[in-house]
Specification:
This is (S)-ureidoglycine aminohydrolase. This protein is mainly beta and about 300 residues long. Helices cover about 10% and strands about 40% of the residues.
Length: about 300
Amino acid sequence: MQSPSLPQLHSFLLLYCFTLISLFIQVLGDGGFCSAPSILEADVSSKPLYWKVTNPTLSPSHLQDLPGFTRSVYKRDHALITPESHVFSPLPDWTNTLGAYLITPAMGSHFVMYLAKMQENSRSALPPHDVERFVFVIQGTVTLTNMSGISNKLMVDSYAYLPPNFEHSLKSDEPATLVVFERRYAFLDNHSTDQIVGSTDKQPLLETPGEVFQLRKLLPASIPYDFNIHIMDFQPGEFLNVKEVHYNQHGLLLLEGQGIYRLGDSWYPVQAGDVIWMAPFVPQWYAALGKTPSRYLLYKDVNRNPL
């Protein structure tokens, strides 16, 4: 076979480079990570809060229907669980509710994190003995009733903390979606926790020395509580100044926006709806990219001696 001439190689290389550039432009134009939203898209401001979490998109769009494609990753010290790989099944003892367990002790965590999709006439079950529960509403409305018969309406961006062995029920007459954290409570002598009901917008912004993000804590920082839930807000282009390495575990749900997350030696594009587990001492870092703010919900164990 005759070898191609130099002009032929030159033409081939030009065509190859043009093809790569065209594909790159297509990916960005299709709403890829860190791209500006299309002016043809529906106004995001008209959508309910956290709409993207329950209506996730894959990017780039030409990979959405590729068999076997997922951005999910599981490693020894971290995991990225993305919406296209969620597996829902009936939640044990809950009524008319489907659940997707996203973080469990099977991967190395000491807590459980799952999504609960409540349908019409749905009702929760109690967690196991000595297990505390935190629920955060990302879609719809649920009614929380405690053992005294006192009820609270929990809407999107509302939450509740339920102490271990605390009688309660969550009910919904219409579809609603919750993110739920549960862990076996680490008891301390002469200390106990109380039921808490609140909403993110009612929590004060806290100082973050050396950092630019906005921080809210949804639970008290006092000794009885062995974990907290943080809400962290980043404007586009903002990032963590500290490259964190610590003994605490994290469970994270990206509620809004998109960005890049470093976990160990890996770098992951992330967007609303993605869940991350971080084991103790895994290097971690986040930067918000794109043109819209980022917000994530973060579980963190606190107030207990690692021994």
